[in-house]
Amino acid sequence: MNAGTVTPTSLSQDLRNTYRERTSPSPSGWPKALPELSRENGASLDETVVKRETKSMNPKTMHQMERGRLLRVLVLLGIAGLWGGCAPSDSIQSQQQAPLASPLAETTGSETASPSPPPSQGRASVVVVQPAARQTSFSLEHRAETAPPDFPLPFPDAYPVTDIEPGRRGGSFTFVSFGEGPKSFNPITTNESSSSDIIGRMFDSLIGYDNAKQAYVPGLLKEWYMEEDKRCWILRLRQGLKWSDGSPLTADDIIFTAQVIYDPNISTPLRDILQVAGKPFEFEKVDDVTVRVRLAEPTGSFLALMGWGPISKRAYEEAYKAGQFDTSMGINVAPEKIVCSGPFKLKQYVPGERVILERNPHYYKYDRNGTQLPYLETLIFTYAPDMDQMLARFTGGTADGIVRPRPDSIPDLADGQKRGNYTVYDCGPGDGANLFWFNLKKGQNPETGKPFVDPVKQAWFDDVRFRRAMLHAIDKESIIRTELRGLAVSVWGLETPANTFWIHPNLPTYPYDPEKAKALLDQMDLRDRDGDGIREDAQGRKVSFTFITNKGNKVRERVASLLQQDWAAVGVEGRPQFLDFNALVTQLDSTFEYEACLLGLGGGGIHPANSMNVYRSSGRTHLFNPRQEKPATPWEEELDRLADRFNATLDIEEQRRIYWRMQEIMSEQLPILPLWTSKVFVAVRNKFGNIKPSALSHELLWNAEEIFVKNP
Predict the structure, then answer these.
(1) 435-679 belongs to which CATH class?
(2) Which of 247, 294, 451, 655 has the most CB atoms around it within 10 Å of its CB?
(3) Which residue from 707, 664, 663, 705 is spatially nearest to 684, judged by alpha carbons?
(4) Which residues contact 494 (CB under 8 A, 6 or more apart)?
(5) Which ranges in 554-676 belong to alpha helices (H)?
(6) What's the predicted TM-score (pTM) here?
(7) CA–CA distance, 578 with 598 (Å, rounded to integer)
(8) Rounded-to-integer distance, Cα 141 and Cα 300, Å
């Protein structure tokens, strides 16, 4: 590397070293103070400018620019005192992890947006989205409700949307994210966010979820209730529902969808979820709009378990019988062949560039003026190759909304609100977490004959001491303070502070402790035998592995480099490999030929029932060793038993006790190394109405059918 070259890694390391010096205890026990940082150096510069000007700037100037942007983030959040020694590091952590309002099931309040307190030094403010009021009542059942008398509905069972501002029809909304776009439009087989973000706007669920109210709400079903034995449920569809092609949506479609889900030849995460006491549901048609569902045991998870939507029997039965269901809604299928039930249908897909959705003329929701939803004529998803270009498209005016921009871009986004006629929302900690795991899957790829993982390395990965050492070696807090700009919270399990009802309050922790990491590796007889700084096993083989992560996410790429440095400090070589997201998913979900992975996990919702596919050994999303025929370890066998018990009770408190034990097992065994959850920021143009940003997915477009273009 040339002496005058400054890379993102070196910038991150400079900030990290500054942080470590800053938080080293002084004799009094308080962190040391830092010299005052200049806000003038690079105060208005964007990451794209920094990259373009690298060759003409010296390292000192670049470092000042990076540190200047960091200070602006801290000032924006009202925590600039961290740089002046105002609070010890342990109190900072406890403040960040203060619980939010419980997001469990139905609530009496709703999320509201209010301006943040005025930041110091004249910084622009963002709008803080307040969480819904804590739950005060809960009911598993819902009976059909009569529409208000002033609602002009075209058919009796149409859905009257009462809690929105009536809008006007027309216009378009363009959303930008980074990546390649969807892998499929199939709601049954999809298991990655690049596809589900689109599918969620195309297919409605039997039972919906209101992110703002944090409550389950009717969807395609107008009512659901238990029969006397508490094991049978009656599901009743709205009469008059239609698919996007105009054909009736009936009970036959639910029965057909259940058949597909439980077919072992179909790869779907839903099969891991839709079971109670380890047994599948039994679906029976009662009449054209009514289905009876029989469960092995009563369950308190029923609402969460019905958060999926049916597919059209008329459109897809032939492909299913021909063994072509997996490709029947693929990205190469003509748009008119994708028959859906949601507010939008597919109009055009240009791979890697954009997806254009158009309004479904047969959608069943109406506002109080009798206007059919959705209001928008088109909803456009565009794709940028990386987060820099994603941000540039929004600030340049070619996109109307973004979610989860780079942490270091928040100050400039806030400053540009008036000029760009948009608002930045702080939605709080998300419900997903960044994770790291080693591939524990044994066996060989049947096509290549090669083992999924080198047996020598797998022996290291299988040893819980190795996994614990790798977590102890990670300086999570310095990564959060520097690379993530303080806009994240450390987690010790798969749940995040956003989910206060279900998160275990006292999980084991593995704080940054390089000496403890070294001691654990020494116990495994992994030592630096040749003095080159990298440990070897007893046979002289280097303790080295490659971990994959998605390229284009600049923050994650730099985090990967910092993890590499942390592990090198304890004598382990971890080399990042950056892949396109869809190629990465193929390795995780199909070939299994990788050693370790750094990635985020989300989309499970606020109820653990939707996360059982992560805990079950047979689960498709049992990340470290998916789709096991039988549990590979005794602790995974216990997880399976607990997962069966979790859904086999109506007692919510008993469910919580069971789930806490599941979290304990995962924390003790560490098959997945929990890292952090990031705060969710959303930016959207002010010309749109009924905008309800949320920390839950989809953070901006979860209510896309309600969004409208305001009058000029």
Answers:
(1) alpha beta
(2) 655
(3) 707
(4) 433, 435, 601, 611, 614, 663, 666, 672, 674
(5) 554-569, 581-586, 612-615, 634-646, 652-669
(6) 0.78
(7) 10
(8) 10
What confidence tens digit (pLDDT) does each residue in 283-306 have? Answer: 999 999 999 999 999 999 999 999
Q: Give me the helix-helix angle, 8-23 and 554-569, nearest 10°.
A: 60
674-685 pLDDT, tens digit each: 999 999 999 999
- Cα gap 401→555, rounded to integer Å: 20
- Among candidate residues 641, 614, 463, the one with its CA nearest the CA of residue 537: 463
Q: Give yes or no for a contact between 557 and 526, defined as CB atoms under 8 angstroms apart.
A: no
Q: Contact, 23 vs 15, CB < 8 A?
A: no
Residue in 20, 14, 66, 25 with CA at minimum distance from that of residue 45: 66
Residues of the chain with CATH 3.40.190.10: 159-381+680-709
Q: Which residues lie below 8 Å from residue 367, measured CB to CB, with a gap of 6+?
A: 161, 164, 166, 167, 373
Spatial distance between the Cα atoms of 357 and 353, rounded to a whole number of angstroms: 14
Residue-wise pLDDT for 174-233, tens only, equals 999 988 899 999 999 998 888 999 999 999 999 999 999 888 999 999 999 999 999 999
256 closest CA partner among 309, 201, 191, 196: 309
Q: Is 466 helix (H, G, I), strand (E, B) or coil?
A: helix
State the residue for tokens 């470290």: 624
Dihedral sign for Cα atoms in the order 261, 262, 263, 266: positive
The per-residue DSSP string of 13-80 comes to HHHHHHHHHHHSBPTTSSBPPPPPPPSSTTTT--HHHHHHTGGGS-HHHHHHHHHHHHHHHHHHTT-G
* Whether 311 contacts 253, CB under 8 Å: yes
What does the pLDDT look like over 238-292, one tens digit per residue? 999 999 999 999 999 999 999 999 999 999 989 988 999 889 999 999 999 999 9
What is the signed CA dihedral for 73, 77, 78, 83, rounded to 10 degrees? -40
User: What is the token pair recorded at 534?
Assistant: 């990298």
Region(s) of the chain under CATH 3.10.105.10: 435-679
Report the first-to-last Cα separation within the chain, whole angstroms. 54
Question: Tell me: domain 159-381+680-709, CATH 3.40.190.10, correct?
Answer: yes
- Percent of the chain residues past pLDDT 90, beyond the cut: 70
